[in-house]
Structures are given as structure tokens and as C-alpha cells.
Design goal:
Layout (H helix, E strand, L loop, with lengths): L1 H5 L2 E2 L6 E2 L16 H38 L10 H37 L3 H7 L1
Antiparallel strand pairs: 1-2
């Protein structure tokens, strides 16, 4: 019984080991949550990260289209104005690069959340199968 009190407790959400007397993990999750509650939190995180990645990808495609359109319209206007399309294309290209980096970050968060979700023990269901 004394060995159980000194054993470190593993957080079901982030997987970090915590001191046996700690009530919360460094990620902010309660160490007293059940596997079902942890699964629900991580599934919500995965869902948000997935939608975020999709929206960043859409924004990246739109900004890339704006950059291509601005580059191809150089000299097409009256008087052959070059400055505004070039500035617009540079801004759109910079925004597309930022959107690409944000999309990759959101995909990494989604993959990490999916891996964490798969690692949470399935204890309540295992007890029902017996």
C-alpha cells in the first residue's frame, strides 16, 4: 500500500509523470480524471486542430491565387503600373508562407492529439467486455 502512494502518477492527457502528491499535471489537467474524460478532452483538441489545419490550407490556396493573379496583371493596367501589383503579390506571398507554416503546425498538433488519443487506456470498455 505504501508503494502505491510513492509511485509517480502519469497524466492521461499529456503522458508526463507527476509526483504522487500532485493533484494537477504541468499541462493543467487534473490527475484524478478518468480515461473517458481524458479521451473526450483529447478528441476535442484533435477536432479543433484538424479544422484549424483545413482553414489554414484554404487560406494558403486563396493567398497563392491572389499572388499569382497580381503577378500576371503587371503591366496589364492603364499606364502599365507596376508598383501596386508587385506589392500585392509580395504581401500575398508572405501571407501564403505564414498560412503554410500555420497549417503544418496545426497538422502536427492534430497528429500529436491523435497519437495521445490512441495511447489513452481503454479501461472502462475492457471492464465491460469481460
Amino acid at each position: 500500500m505504501a508503494a502505491a502512494m510513492t509511485a509517480p502518477r502519469r497524466c492521461l492527457i499529456c503522458g508526463h509523470l507527476n509526483e504522487p502528491y500532485a493533484a494537477r499535471c504541468s499541462c493543467g489537467a487534473s490527475l484524478d480524471v478518468t480515461a473517458d474524460e481524458s479521451r473526450r478532452v483529447v478528441a476535442h483538441t484533435a477536432r479543433i486542430a484538424g479544422w484549424s489545419a483545413a482553414l489554414w490550407a484554404i487560406l494558403m490556396v486563396v493567398l497563392t491565387g491572389v499572388a499569382i493573379t497580381a503577378i500576371t496583371s503587371v503591366g496589364a493596367g492603364p499606364g502599365g503600373g507596376v508598383r501596386l501589383p508587385v506589392l500585392l503579390s509580395l504581401g500575398a506571398f508572405g501571407g501564403a508562407c505564414f498560412a503554410l507554416a500555420s497549417c503544418v503546425g496545426a497538422l502536427r498538433r492534430w497528429l500529436a492529439a491523435r497519437a495521445t488519443l490512441a495511447a489513452i487506456p481503454d479501461l472502462p470498455r475492457a471492464a465491460l467486455r469481460r
